[in-house]
């Protein structure tokens, strides 16, 4: 066993705590006055201070002590969690992170400046926040009360945060359109007289429900935030809660439910399971050939156990993508201030799980895509208004399972891609020949080429033409693909499609000549027999599959297979995205669990194979890279289309 | 004396490829295997045209006979696969080397090693690090790094 450096343990813990702090602060910006958030941030700070001092990070704990003092006022309700306070607190959080990494290199004066900013942010008018919950009588509308006017009047009293509550809406069948079922929860800051609040409801006070409470007092029911938080906050909040328990340092019974395990051990475990899967395949093969019922029954048990062990092990490596999305809230927050654009980040599908290695590698590409969308895609407010859009742009980040793939979408409602400009730029820089015939989608895809940028100016964010190239290379390295959709004036949508795991997949084993190859089963659509009359016209091969032309490739030719071809050849139709292609093989052997082994550097330049696997009899089989084969087929398809067009012209 | 001899002696595994004796650095040899089924890799460089399973890992199989332009008869009872690992541009390269016969682990006196003559050689001199002499003839010490870099298609991939 290697001894563990306690300072490293602290750094790890601190990273988690800082994460919680940041999320709480960002949530707090949306829902100022949410006490849960304030105390979550406060707890994180407090734990950091304590353990920092314990592990000898004195500069850290001294700084946090002052930070905490400022925040304590918010906790006691003496100061509002204003925008300035949040901004200063975020800076302070970054400062703490820097101090923990390397205290010596941090400028001490920066710390005192931040503390001064914090102090300034809380010393403003320390007014309490009033929480108001009200429900109008159901017949209020018929009596001529306009809730909008009431809310406007409330707004005139001071800065308001209004949440509509819909829990009292009648079942759909019983809804009376004349009745008002909604209730509202408000928080009013600033110097407000509670009597003035009551006066707003003067004329309907008798029949309505109204509670007015001073925030900061104990036992205030926090119904508004719990029941109707903004959409984006729900899942991130759920994510936040989990580590929060740990942060609190309170002995709770769930605490033992999660373990921190070094990632290498999981990798090792996965390797062992991979070996087990291979050994089990050998056992099954021997059992079948021996015709010994006892042996067969044991082999079947082992097969069942192996397969569930495989699933469990892969499960332990799965991490919800929300852990990644959470990081981008800060990025969007900072970028929108730098760029002077109002951007609302909406995330969905945070619970979607992906292999941890995939998640780790996804961070960079997503940062590039978000930066690109915010810098190039989303327009300035004036432009947005001119084109009839709201001032605030929406950036959607979503994840969802689609078959054996996970689709991650980054969509903005900005100006869309300027195809003409991309084309001009590509021609100018020699990426494509002037006047080359290219579909619009293909032109747009050029943004993923290395060194390509249409931006007239290089900003601190993008424009160097490096980022998108990184996106493409990383995604391809993960055996994924990129879809790009853009509508001028309405926005751009980039979809990253990634395999669920990089370790073990289900494969379809086929034979070509004397060689056996595995095709990822997730990509296989169907298997058919190659019709006798499937002639090749002018060197290009197409197959009529229920009225659709599907290009096909003879793997025998591609792989220069020796020996006679089988009389009845089979076609495996595979797809990636919208594109389908048929692969002609000699024999379809069957399904197998495929443990993916990377090819060495000597073979990494072969684009037709994505890896190798070991079969039950101990031999090696190559795994076909469907994406690249489909790309090959796509070129066939295009050349046919050009051919048809050329003839028509 | 021992310290001195360690410096001047190369510990080597000698193998036979056709009629020539080659020496592989003994420290780079991981294991010696009986012939196993070889999976052909279509469109790969001929020198590394196969893959083998070495106890659960997929390892490329290299045939030095291709590099030295020798005949390649089918495997017989003497054929072995020598699994070697060595540093290639900072990465650990594990590869199987096909040998017509494996001889012995021996010591080659550095004094007897000579640099490669530029002329009068059947093989490309760039792929030979030096030639050692022993009572019964010459021993060729191949330059594995250079062979794998050039013949493994790595240069092409990098270019």
TrEMBL record, chain A:
All copies of the CheW-like domain together span 504-635
Q: Which sequence positions carry the modification called Phosphohistidine?
A: 46
Comp. bias intervals (Low complexity) = 223-237
CDD domains to which the protein is assigned, alphabetical? CheA_reg, HATPase_CheA-like, HPT
Domain HPt residue range list: 1-103
Highest rank taxon of the organism:
Bacteria
- Per its record, how is this protein called by name? Chemotaxis protein CheA
Q: Which organism is it from?
A: Jiella pelagia
Which classification does the entry list for the species? Bacteria, Pseudomonadati, Pseudomonadota, Alphaproteobacteria, Hyphomicrobiales
Automatic annotation (TrEMBL), chain B:
Q: Which SMART domains match?
A: CheW
The organism encoding this protein is Jiella pelagia
Q: What is the lineage of its organism?
A: Bacteria, Pseudomonadati, Pseudomonadota, Alphaproteobacteria, Hyphomicrobiales
| Pfam families linked to this entry | CheW
- Superkingdom of origin organism: Bacteria
InterPro entries recorded for this chain? CheW (IPR039315), CheW-like_dom_sf (IPR036061), CheW-lke_dom (IPR002545)
**Where does the record place the CheW-like domain?**
9-153
Gene3D superfamilies, sorted: CheA-289, Domain 4, SH3 Domains
- Any idea what this protein is called? Chemotaxis protein CheW
């Amino acid at each position: 066993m290697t001894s563990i450096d306690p300072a490293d343990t602290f750094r790890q813990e601190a990273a988690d705590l800082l994460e919680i702090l940041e999320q709480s602060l960002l949530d707090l910006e949306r829902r100022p006055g949410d006490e849960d958030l304030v105390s979550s941030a406060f707890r994180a700070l407090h734990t950091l201070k304590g353990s920092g001092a314990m592990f000898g990070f004195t500069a850290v704990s001294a700084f946090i002590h002052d930070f905490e003092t400022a925040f304590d006022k918010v906790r006691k309700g003496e100061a509002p969690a204003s925008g300035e306070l949040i901004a200063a607190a975020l800076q302070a959080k970054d400062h703490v992170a820097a101090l923990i990494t390397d205290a010596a290199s941090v400028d001490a004066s920066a710390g005192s400046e931040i503390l001064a900013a914090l102090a300034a942010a809380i010393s403003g008018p320390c007014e309490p926040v009033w929480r108001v919950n009200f429900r109008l009588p159901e017949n209020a509308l018929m009596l001529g009360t306009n809730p909008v006017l009431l809310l406007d009047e409330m707004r005139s009293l001071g800065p308001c945060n209004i949440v509509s509550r819909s829990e009292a809406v009648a079942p759909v069948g019983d809804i009376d359109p004349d009745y008002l079922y909604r209730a509202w929860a408000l928080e009013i800051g600033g110097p407000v007289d509670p009597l003035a609040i009551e006066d707003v409801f003067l004329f309907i006070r008798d029949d309505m429900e109204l509670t007015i409470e001073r925030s900061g007092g104990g036992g205030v029911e926090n119904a508004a935030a719990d029941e109707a938080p903004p959409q984006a906050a729900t899942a991130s909040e759920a994510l936040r809660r989990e580590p929060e328990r740990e942060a609190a340092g309170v002995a709770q019974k769930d605490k033992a439910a999660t373990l921190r395990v070094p990632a290498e051990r999981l990798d090792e475990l996965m390797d062992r399971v991979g070996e087990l899967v291979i050994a089990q395949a050998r056992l099954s093969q021997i059992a079948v050939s021996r015709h010994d019922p006892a042996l067969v029954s044991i082999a079947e048990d082992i097969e069942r156990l192996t397969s569930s062990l495989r699933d469990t092990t892969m499960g332990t490596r799965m991490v919800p993508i929300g852990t990644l999305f959470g990081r981008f809230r800060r990025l969007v927050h900072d970028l929108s201030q730098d760029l002077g654009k109002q951007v609302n980040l909406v995330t969905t599908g945070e619970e979607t799980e992906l292999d941890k290695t995939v998640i780790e590698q996804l961070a960079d590409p997503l940062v590039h895509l978000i930066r690109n969308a915010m810098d190039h895609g989303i327009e300035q407010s004036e432009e947005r208004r001119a084109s009839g859009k709201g001032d605030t742009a929406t950036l959607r980040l979503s994840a969802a399972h689609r078959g054996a793939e996970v689709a991650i979408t980054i969509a903005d409602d900005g100006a869309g891609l300027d195809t003409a400009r991309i084309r001009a730029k590509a021609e100018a820089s020699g990426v494509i020949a002037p006047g080359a015939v290219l579909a619009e989608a293909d032109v747009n895809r050029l943004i993923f080429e290395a060194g390509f940028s249409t931006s007239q100016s290089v900003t601190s964010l993008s424009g160097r033409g490096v980022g998108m190239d990184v996106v493409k290379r990383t995604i391809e390295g993960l055996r994924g693909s990129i879809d790009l959709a853009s509508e001028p004036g309405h926005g751009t949508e980039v979809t990253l499609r990634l395999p669920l795991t990089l370790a073990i997949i289900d494969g379809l084993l086929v034979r070509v000549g004397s060689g056996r190859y595995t095709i990822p089963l997730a990509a296989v659509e169907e298997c058919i027999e190659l019709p006798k009359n499937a002639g090749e016209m002018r060197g290009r091969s197409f197959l009529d599959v229920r009225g659709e032309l599907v290009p096909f490739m003879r793997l025998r030719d591609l792989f220069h297979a020796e020996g006679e071809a089988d009389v009845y050849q089979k076609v495996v139709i595979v797809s990636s995205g919208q594109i389908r292609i048929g692969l002609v093989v000699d024999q379809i052997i069957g399904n197998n669990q495929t443990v993916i082994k990377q090819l060495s550097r000597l073979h990494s330049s072969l684009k037709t194979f994505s890896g190798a696997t070991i079969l039950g009899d101990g031999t090696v089989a190559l795994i076909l890279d469907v994406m690249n084969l489909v790309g090959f087929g796509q070129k066939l398809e295009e050349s046919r289309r050009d051919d048809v067009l050329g003839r028509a012209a | 004396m021992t310290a001195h001899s360690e410096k001047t002696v190369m510990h080597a595994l000698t193998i036979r490829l056709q009629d020539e004796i080659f020496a592989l650095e003994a420290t780079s040899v991981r294991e010696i295997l009986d012939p196993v089924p070889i999976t052909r890799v279509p469109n790969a460089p001929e020198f590394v045209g196969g893959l083998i399973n070495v106890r659960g890992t997929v390892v490329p199989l290299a045939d030095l006979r291709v590099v030295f332009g020798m005949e390649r008869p089918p495997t017989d009872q003497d054929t072995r696969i020598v699994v070697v690992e060595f540093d290639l541009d900072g990465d650990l390269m594990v590869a199987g080397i096909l040998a017509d016969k494996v001889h012995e682990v021996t010591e080659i006196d550095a004094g007897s090693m000579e640099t490669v003559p530029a002329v009068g050689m059947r093989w490309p001199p760039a792929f030979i690090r030096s030639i050692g002499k022993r009572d019964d003839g010459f021993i060729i010490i191949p330059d594995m790094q250079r062979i794998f870099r050039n013949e493994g298609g790595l240069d092409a991939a990098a270019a």
